[in-house]
């Protein structure tokens, strides 16, 4: 038996244009998400910067887009504005590890339909992209706990710092020994 929210949920097969532009400078995350979204039926194009994202959007305005807020060469909001200018009905979701109210408002004003904090899985992204415009996306069945989100963030920064504990601790503004204790523990549920 489908819930009322699931009935409002559209499927990718309902759309004639299945193009999805994923713009994120985190290469492993972008590649993983691209593979997962292709399995779900999207025709995925990837970009790793504002510049390449805008070029991709100008070449083939996407029906769907997932755009990271902070990219190496600027703000993903620039890409959202350009996609919205090129194709008004494009469904754009902002993806970021730096969620706050002002950036959420700016993303929606620029044309985004939803805003998902990192780390997000393919199901969360699909739900946000395919939710009918008058309803919200279906909330995740088993969302990550706050402890798990914190653990994921710490490990992501650790990897970005080339597994250098001192540099990671400095960037996270925490004591090196505290960080070492966190890194030595298993991930929370």
Descriptive account of the structure:
This protein is 48% helix and 16% strand. It contains nine helices and seven strands, in the order αβαβαβββαβαβαααα. The strands form two sheets. The chain has a five-stranded parallel beta sheet, sandwiched between helices. Strands 4-5 form a two-stranded antiparallel sheet. The longest helix has 15 residues, at 146-160. Mean pLDDT is 82; it is low at 1-7.
Summarize the structure in short:
This protein has 189 residues and is of the alpha/beta class.
List the helices and strands and how they pair.
Layout: H1 4-8, E1 19-23, H2 27-39, E2 43-47, H3 50-59, E3 64-68, E4 70-71, E5 74-75, H4 76-86, E6 91-96, H5 101-110, E7 112-117, H6 122-130, H7 146-160, H8 165-172, H9 176-184
Parallel strand pairs: 1-2, 1-3, 3-6, 6-7
Antiparallel strand pairs: 4-5
Helix pairs in contact: 3-4, 7-8, 8-9
Q: How many β-strands, per DSSP?
A: 7
Number of helices: 9
Can you summarize the main beta sheet?
A: 5 strands, parallel
Radius of gyration: 18 Å
The low-confidence runs, each spanning 5 or more residues with pLDDT under 50, are: 1-7
Which structural class matches the secondary elements?
alpha/beta
Number of domains: 2
Strand content: 15-25%
**N- and C-termini, Cα separation:** 29 Å
Strand order of the largest sheet: 2-1-3-6-7
